[in-house]
Amino acid sequence: MEPNSSAATVAARAGSRLFEQIGCALCHTPTIVTAPEGTPINGGTFTVPAALGDKAFHPFSDFLLHDVGTGDGIVQNGGPRTRNRLRTAPLWGVRVRNRLMHDGESVTFDDAIQRHRGEAAFVTGNYQRLSGQQKRLISKFLESL
Question: pTM for the whole thing?
Fold first, then answer.
């Protein structure tokens, strides 16, 4: 995938600020830093090497399970309470996807955002209170990822 030059535009930067302000970044975490070099993980079966230690990457996901009201009833690795929870999808590369959300039922950013319920209902409410222009800025930001 080619780098996207639209990430540096004024509109994308403004949309990024709105994305954070309304709460999207609580789950769609912009930056994650890997564990430090030498950290034992997986019960000590792996030690983080220098090549992987202390590296920042930008997935726009926390990779955690959340109930956003669109779950499919499939139990995840956490037992029955995970039945309607979904792993936060990374938004990196979302600009090249033509289907959104875990089920592919959304084809626009606006629809995907509007479908967030459950734990994300307050963020969806924040989004709904934005002006049309502000919503377009968020779309410009997502188109830059």
Answer: 0.85
| H-run or E-run covering 66 | strand 65-66
What is the rounded distance in angstroms from the CA atom of residue 84 to the CA atom of residue 88? Answer: 13
DSSP code, position 88: P
One-letter amino acid for residue 21 of the chain:
Q
Chain centre to alpha carbon of residue 47: 28
- Give the pair of three-digit tokens for residue 103: 């089920």
Domain positions in the chain are: 5-25+65-143
Handedness of CA 62, 66, 68, 74 (dihedral sign): positive
The CATH number of 5-25+65-143 is: 1.10.760.10
Chain mean pLDDT for the chain: 91
The first and second tokens of residue 105, run together, are 């039922």
Q: What is the band of 1 on the pLDDT scale with cuts at 50, 70, 90? A: low
Q: Are strands 32-33 and 86-87 parallel, antiparallel or unpaired?
A: unpaired
Amino acid letter at 94? V
* Residue 58 token pair: 């930008």
Q: Give one DSSP letter per residue of 14-39, joined into a string.
A: HHHHHHHHTTGGGTS-S-EEPPPTT-
